[in-house]
Design brief:
The structure is a single chain. By secondary structure, the chain is of the alpha/beta class. It has 3 domains: 5-116, Probable tRNA modification gtpase trme, domain 1 (Gyrase A, domain 2); 150-205 and 376-438, Up-down Bundle (Four Helix Bundle (Hemerythrin (Met), subunit A)); 212-369, Rossmann fold (3-Layer(aba) Sandwich). The chain is built from 15 helices and 12 strands. The chain has helices at residues 27-34, 87-99, 109-116, 122-133, 137-147, 150-174, 186-203, 206-214, 228-236, 279-294, 351-362, 366-369, 378-399, 404-422, 428-438; strands spanning 5-8, 15-23, 46-52, 58-67, 78-85, 103-104, 216-222, 254-260, 263-269, 297-303, 320-326, 341-342. The strands form 2 sheets. A 6-stranded mixed sheet has the order 3-4-5-2-1-6. Strand 1 and strand 2 form a beta hairpin. Helix 6 packs across helix 15 (428-438), helix 7 packs antiparallel against helix 13 (378-399) and helix 13 packs antiparallel against helix 14 (404-422). The radius of gyration is 30 Å and the shape is flat. The protein starts with a strand and ends with a helix.
Length: 442
C-alpha cells in the first residue's frame, strides 16, 4: 500500500496519556527526525524520547516503541509514541510527524493494511471493531473468538472442501483422457450437501450476531401512566425518562441499552397508546406503533392499581411478547384471577423473575450462547446466502443430469461467495489443486 500513515490512536479529549501511531516504510526515518536524531530503541523495546519541532524545541516527552515489519499489527514498520494526553500537545506531535512526511490515516486504514499484508483476514479485521464496541460480556467473548480467526477458519474449511470438489469435477472436464474418476455421483453430491449444512449452521447465528452487536429491540408498550418510563429507569438503574402522574408525558421514543445477564437489550420507551386530540401526542403514538412492528420483543405493561379492563392492544402476529403487570404492591382485587408477570417499579419486587422470564422467552443466556463460537454479521450473511444458493444450483444441476460445466460454474460461484467472507478469492487455486492432488501431466 501507499506511504507512511499517522494517526492519534486514543480518543479525542484530555487524558493522562495519548498514543500516536506511525506505519509504513518511512516510519523509522520520520520518528528519528522527530526525536532530533537520537537513536530509536531496538525493536519491541521502549525508551524515553523527546519529540522536537523544526527549531529543535521540545514539543513533548514520552515513551517510544518500534515494531519492525512484518512482526507488527499492520505488517509494516510501526512506531508508537505515548505522550501526555493534552489536546494541544497531542495535535502538535501529530503535526510534526506530518511535516516530516507522514500522511494522515483514513478511517480503519491501519487495520486495512493489516488485512492487505496478511496479518488479519476480513473476519478478524471486522472483529476489531466488534471488540471496541462490545457492550456485554457475551459480545466481548464473540468478538475475541472471531478475532482469533474462528469464523475465518470455518469458512476456509468449507472453501477447502468445495475447492476439492471443484478440482475433481474440472479435472474430469479438462483432462478426460487421463481417465480420472469424475466423482460426480452420490459421493460428490453428499460432499456438497455436507458443506451446505455447515453454511446453514453459520446462517443460523445471524440473529445472534445482530443481537450481540445491536441488542434485542425491546419495546415497552402500553396505555398512558402504566409505568413504562418507570420500568425503563429501573432497568437502567438511573432516571433516564421523566416519570409523571400526568398522562401523555412521553411524546417521543427513548432508546437505551441495558445489559441483562450478558445480553444487550435495546430498550425503547414509547408514548402511551390512547385516543388523543393533541397533534404531537398522536404523532408519538404513531411512532409507538412503528416501533412495535419492528420489535424483537414487546413488553406490554398493565396497571394493577386500576380496575381490570378487558382491552387488548394490537400485537404483531408471531412477535415475542411478555405481559407485565405493574404496581403489584397496589393490586386491585379485580386482577386476582388474571395471568401476567407481577412487578413493582416502585419497590423493585419481581425484577429477578422478570430477568428470568426474558431469558427464557428469548432462549438467551450465557450457558446457551457459550456453545456458539461465531456469530455472523450482515455482510457474512449475504455471502453465505449467495454461497448456499450457488450450492443449491450445483446439486440441482447434478440431479438433472446436466453437463458438468454447469455444475462447475455454480461451484465456482459458491467458492467466490465463501471466499469473500475472509477476503480470499483466487481462481488460480483450483488449477493448483488439480495438479497437486491428481498428479496430472506426470
Amino acid at each position: 500500500m501507499g506511504g507512511t500513515i499517522v494517526a492519534i490512536a486514543t480518543p479525542v479529549g484530555t487524558g493522562a496519556v495519548s498514543l500516536i501511531r506511525l506505519s509504513g516504510p518511512e516510519a523509522q526515518r520520520i520518528a528519528l527526525a522527530a526525536c532530533g536524531k537520537v537513536s530509536l530503541p531496538d525493536a519491541r523495546q521502549v525508551a524515553l524520547r523527546k519529540i522536537r519541532d523544526e527549531n529543535d524545541l521540545v514539543i513533548d516527552e514520552g515513551v517510544l516503541c518500534f515494531f519492525a515489519g512484518p512482526r507488527s499489527y499492520t505488517g509494516e514498520d510501526v512506531v508508537e509514541f505515548t505522550g501526555h494526553g493534552g489536546v494541544v500537545v497531542t495535535r502538535k506531535v501529530l503535526e510534526r510527524f506530518v511535516e516530516l512526511g507522514a500522511v494522515p490515516a483514513g478511517p480503519g486504514e491501519f487495520t486495512q493494511r493489516a488485512f492487505m499484508n496478511g496479518r488479519l483476514d476480513l473476519t478478524q479485521a471486522e472483529a476489531v471493531m466488534d471488540l471496541i464496541s462490545a457492550q456485554t460480556s457475551l459480545a466481548l467473548r464473540s468478538a475475541n473468538e472471531q478475532l482469533e480467526g474462528r469464523l475465518g477458519a470455518v469458512c476456509q474449511d468449507i472453501r477447502a472442501a468445495l475447492l476439492g470438489s471443484t478440482a475433481h469435477l474440472e479435472a474430469y472436464i479438462d483432462f478426460p483422457e487421463e481417465d480420472i474418476d469424475p466423482d460426480v455421483g452420490e459421493k460428490l453430491k453428499q460432499g456438497l450437501l455436507d458443506q451446505r449444512k455447515r453454511i446453514l449452521d453459520l446462517l443460523a447465528t445471524a440473529d445472534q450476531g445482530r443481537i450481540l452487536r445491536e441488542g434485542v429491540r425491546t419495546v415497552i408498550y402500553g396505555k398512558p401512566n402504566v409505568g413504562k418510563s418507570s420500568l425503563l429507569n429501573r432497568l437502567l438503574g438511573y432516571q433516564r425518562a421523566i416519570v409523571s402522574a400526568q398522562e401523555g408525558t412521553t411524546r417521543d421514543t427513548i432508546e437505551e441499552v441495558v445489559n441483562i445477564r450478558g445480553i444487550p437489550l435495546r430498550l425503547i420507551d414509547t408514548a402511551g397508546v390512547r385516543e388523543s386530540k393533541d397533534e404531537i401526542e398522536r404523532e408519538g403514538i404513531a411512532m409507538t406503533h412503528g416501533q412495535v412492528a419492528k420489535a424483537d420483543l414487546i413488553l406490554e405493561m398493565r396497571d394493577l392499581s386500576e380496575p381490570f379492563e378487558d382491552v387488548e392492544l394490537p400485537i404483531p402476529e408471531g412477535a415475542k411478547h411478555l405481559q407485565i403487570l405493574n404496581k403489584r404492591d397496589q393490586e386491585d382485587s379485580s386482577w386476582s384471577s388474571k395471568d401476567g408477570l407481577r412487578i413493582s417499579c416502585e419497590t423493585g419486587e419481581g425484577f429477578e423473575e422478570l430477568e428470568e422470564n426474558l431469558m427464557s422467552l428469548l432462549s438467551l443466556d450465557e450457558e446457551h450462547w457459550g456453545v456458539h463460537s461465531v456469530a455472523v454479521n450482515a455482510r457474512h450473511q449475504a455471502c453465505l446466502l449467495r454461497g448456499r444458493e450457488a450450492l443449491d444450483r450445483a446439486v440441482s444441476s447434478m440431479g438433472a443430469g446436466e453437463e458438468p460445466e454447469f455444475t462447475s460454474l455454480s461451484l465456482r460461484e459458491a467458492l467466490g461467495a465463501i471466499g469473500e467472507i475472509s477476503g480470499v478469492v483466487d481462481t488460480e487455486e483450483i488449477l493448483g489443486e488439480i495438479f497437486g492432488n491428481f498428479c496430472i501431466g506426470k
